[in-house]
Design goal:
about 100 residues, mainly alpha
Length: about 100
């Protein structure tokens, strides 16, 4: 019974093969290992930071949305006939367009 090989392992073998085939030799392998170590450290830090972030209760989210809505300067146009407002065009004949 064969175990499936993860794609990351295949990619690592491919990169190691390419790194060793170059003229750089060992320095390319060291650079690849350093890049992999830095990447894994970045992933570990992001996972730890995501787990340590406090959860926001849903009622606070609703309150924040309501507060933002009250601060928004939106004036609904309830009266289209108010002074200074032009009446919208009524539907009618289509305007001539360029052919």
């Amino acid at each position: 019974m064969r175990l499936p090989v993860p794609p990351a392992v295949l990619l690592l073998f491919l990169l190691a093969d390419v790194a060793l085939a170059d003229a750089g030799g060992l320095s390319a392998v060291v650079a690849l290992a350093a890049t992999a170590a830095a990447g894994s450290a970045l992933v570990a830090c992001s996972v730890i930071a995501a787990r340590l972030a406090p959860a926001v209760p849903p009622d606070r989210v609703r309150t924040a949305i309501r507060d933002r809505e009250q601060r928004t300067a939106f004036l609904p146009q309830r009266d289209p006939d108010a002074s200074g407002r032009t009446r919208p065009r009524a539907p009618g004949r289509p305007l001539p367009t360029a052919a």
